[in-house]
Amino acid sequence: MKVQDTITDTVCYHCGETLTNYKIDYDDRKFCCVGCKSVYQILSENNMCNYYAYNQTPGQKQQSNAHLEYLDEASIVAQLIDYKDNENTIITFYMPAIHCSSCIWLLEHLYKINPAIYNSRIDFLKKQATLSFKHSDISLREVVECLSQIGYEPLISLQDVVKEKSKSVNKELILKIAVAGFCMSNVMLFSFPEYFGLSGLEKNFQYLFGWINLAFCIPSTFYCGKEYFTSAITSLKHKQINLDTPLALIIAVLFIRTAYTIVFDQGPGFADTLTALIFLLLMGKWVKQRTYHHISFDRDYRSYFPIAITTLQDGKEKPVAINELAIGDRLWIRNGELIPADAILMKGDAWLDMSFVTGEAEPQQKVLGEMVYAGGRQMGEAIEVEIVKLASQSYLTGLWNKDHYKTNFKRKNFNDDIAKYFSIGVFVIAFSAIAYWFYQGDSTKAWSAFTAVIIVACPCVLALSTPFTLSAILSVFDKRGFYVKNTDAVEQLADCDTIIFDKTGTLTTTETATLHFSGFLNHEEQLLVASLLRNSSHPLSRHILKNLGANKSYQVVDYVETPGKGVKGLVNQVMVYAGSKKLLPLGIEPDDSNGVHIVIANIYKGCFKIQQEWRDGLQPLIADLKNDFDLNILSGDTEKDRLQLQRFFPAQTKIHFEQSPVQKLNAILAKQEEGKKVMMLGDGLNDAGALKQSNFGIALTDNINNFTPGCDAILKGSSLKYLPNFVKLSRDGLTIIKISFTIATAYNCVGLYYAVQGTLYPLVAAVLMPLSTITIISFTSIATRLYARKNKLL
Amino acid sequence: MNILYFLVGCSVAMALIFLGAFIWSLKSGQHDDVYTPGVRILFDDEVVDTVDTRKADPSPKSDDNHN
To answer: Based on the number of CB atoms within 10 Å of its own CB, is A439 exposed (0-12), middle (13-18) or buried (19 or more)?
Structure first.
């Protein structure tokens, strides 16, 4: 109890943020800001304080001030909803804020807040909520507003996350596994009498059991195994051999031989081996298809863009879907909104934060008539722009549409490489066996030996060891905050010999930034500034406020906040300004242009500057990587950090500044043309092209729910220090696969010994295959754990 | 021994019923979300409303620790 009391004393009851001296008391509870308090207020009024009972401080900070007018447009609404009839509407939202059981409880009891939302269902892992509401009582906009009020603002973007995801669910494979498992277990059941030897009486049943087994083989082969045949045929058409080619051959041979022996009553067939093989192969496929519900690897600019934007038509504001924008449309861009298409600035004062597009940290000012590019975020008063290029043709989206991406740096994997040699080897042995027995004049034995060789030499283990090893590695990575797209990508990771870093957001962190004040403020002045900033919800104000740590406050009169510029007000009868250069009273010329400048009673006091910090453990990381990799830095920012970077990186590192997204992409292409395998680490849209072109693109993020550009893997910022260990483990993974291949070959040799003699009894095959499979699977999982421990990842 | 023919038929029919049941559950979406229902079932109905009226609860504050 005591512990809990101290916790509730020092953190916000709603969001759990550590309280500064500035706090709000309400209902005997303490809150860090008005947003948190108002959520609590809504919940307590609706008798929903259960929310706080299931978890401590379940809330998340409120930061939304989005304009939702577009949700009143019927054409936009129609794109979003799943179903609509006369009374009801059903819609599925993606809500990144869902993170604990309290969230589930609250969102499934929405009807208590507004009975018109009569049903809601949460899918926790996908962070999705399906809501049903009566659209005569509540509009979609009101639903979203209601959700935003309680801190669960749905993410509605141009690339609909919900609909993309529902496509990727692979029910077909699970269905096939179910059928294959069903066939396998039944065939096993009917094969048992055969294994134990049949008495004279039971011989009557042999014929029946045979036919039943054959009947089970048919769905197993032609439904569950169909993909292997189609895949083999397509690859043969392209005059290539992949791993599916020998597998399809084996399935076909097994089926034909089983059917032949059963139809002509020549003893038991290989029905058990066939069905078990197909079942195991499908299991391997399933293990390979590891999905992360909460992460999307294929995002592009569309998930960064909103679905609609405000246009001005005859002086009136009207929300229009981004897809329907036309050249010449006037757009009204408010503070914090995104410019969706290349446009010309017509009215207003544009300060554009282009950091996501170019990687440049400081906002840029644009003058009237200047071109503003898509992806820039306005920081300041609302501006008016006129579109000159469509959203789909802008400079930014061009990165995705252009045919930059040369695929001749082909991604190959070990399996397909070895499948070729494997198939050739099997055919050589099979044909020598058949030739030998024909030479001996024993045609029955010849065919029996031929088929037996193909059956025994099954590359089943190959098809299984790779997915099992790599998916075991994926789950090790997963625990350390490194989410790799799929198992194939792990092989690419192991191959890399060059690393290219982005600077902003990759080598520096966005979460912890230190604050520097250029001048000096005495205690009284600190109080004045703190009292003023308390009124602002801007992140910078809150950050400075936290650093000032004032314990009391003055009344502020004539408070004015200019969005994106700063605040001013009369505090304790003293005029105080805090904000950018532009807001300062005339006659005061600060020494530096950026940062939050403080002016008290017309005297310039200095400026607060946020300095980006390098990520933790950068020094040892680079020291670890420099021996194995060719390191490079491509930054979109200015040269100001060159000296600091040179301290971290070895002398031969190539550091380039002011790189445009296209230059980054071309730099990677150039490296690849030198024959290098390039790993790219980046974070923003400006790296998106480079991430896509690189052999292995890693998107770094401090919050997994944030936007990340399309990539092969997502890495948490705090886990960057493990990067060398990740690479080492992926290389060890390939070693494991090679060792298991050797083990499998040993088993195959035993089988081949019987096979070439034409004496392979079905029971031997039926025992050999599962035995080797079990050996391999246990070997791979144990070996992966050992290697993970060796690499300090477990 | 003819009864065996009947039993074999029964066993296959039973297995087919189970397979059919699984396919039905898969198609009707019962496996789409395997996490949330497990959390949902643990929610009490109206905890807050019943706190005061609960009889056998010596420390009324203990319901703060549900997780």
So the answer is: exposed
Arithmetic mean of pLDDT over chain A: 82
Strand partners, A562: A566
Cα–Cα distance measured from residue A152 to residue A145, given in angstroms and rounded to the nearest whole number: 9
**b/e burial code for range A593-623 (CB count within 10 A of at least 16 → b):** eebbbbbbeeebbbbbbbebebbeebeebbe
Alpha helices, H only, A87-199? 101-108, 110-113, 140-149, 161-168, 171-196
Return d(Cα A584, Cα A169) in angstroms, integer.
Answer: 56
How far apart CA A510 and CA A700 sit, in angstroms, is 11
Sign of the Cα torsion A117, A123, A125, A126 reads negative
What the block records as the tokens of A405 is 């991406």
* ipTM score assigned to the predicted complex: 0.75
What residues in B contact A57, CB-CB < 8 Å? none
Q: Is B36 on the interface with A (CB under 8 A)?
A: yes
Which residues have CB under 8 Å from A167's CB, separation 6+? Answer: none
Residue A275 has pLDDT above 90, yes or no: yes
Nearest-angstrom CA–CA distance, A403 and A668: 15
Question: Could you tell me if B52 lies within 8 Å of chain A, comparing CB atoms?
Answer: no
Query: Per residue in A154-185, pLDDT tens?
Result: 888 776 655 655 555 578 888 999 999 999 99
**How far A656 CA sits from the closest chain B CA (Å)?**
47
Check: CB of residue A50 under 8 Å from CB of residue A105.
yes
Contact yes or no for B11 and A189 at CB 8 A = yes
CA A343 – CA A322 distance, rounded (Å): 14
Q: Does B6 touch chain A (CB under 8 A)?
A: no
Banded model confidence at residue A226, pLDDT cuts 50, 70, 90: very high
Q: Is the pLDDT of residue A8 over 60?
A: no
Q: What is the pLDDT of residue A216?
A: 95
Chain A CB contacts of B27 below 8 Å: 171
| Closest B-chain CA to A55 | B67
Instruction: Write out chain A residues lying below 8 Å of B21, CB-based.
Output: none
A771: which 2 tokens? 């035995």
Share of chain A above pLDDT 90, in %: 15
3-state secondary structure of A707: coil
- Asked whether residue A64 carries a pLDDT value surpassing 80, the answer given is no
**In residues, how long is chain B?**
67
pTM: 0.79
In the block, which residue shows the tokens 């590019």? A373
Are the Cβ atoms of B33 and A201 closer than 8 angstroms?
no
Number of other residues whose CB lies within 10 A of the CB of residue A25: 9
Q: Cβ of A512 under 8 Å from any chain B Cβ?
A: no
* Cβ–Cβ below 8 Å for B48 and A53: yes
The alpha-carbon gap from B52 to the nearest alpha carbon of chain A, in Å, equals 14
CB count within 10 Å of CB A787 equals 23
pLDDT in tens, A437-458: 999 888 888 888 888 888 887 7
| Among A400, A386, A372, CA closest to A303 | A400
Residue A233 has pLDDT above 50, yes or no: yes
What pLDDT shows up at residue A7? 47
Residue A55 is nearest to which of B46, B47, B67, comparing CB atoms? B67
Q: Which two tokens stand for residue A538?
A: 């801007």
Long-range contacts of A578-586 (CB under 8 A, 24+ apart): A578/A529, A578/A532, A578/A533, A578/A541, A578/A544, A582/A349
Confidence (pLDDT) at A162: 57
C-beta atoms of A204 and B1 within 8 A: yes
Token pair of B4 as six digits: 């065996």
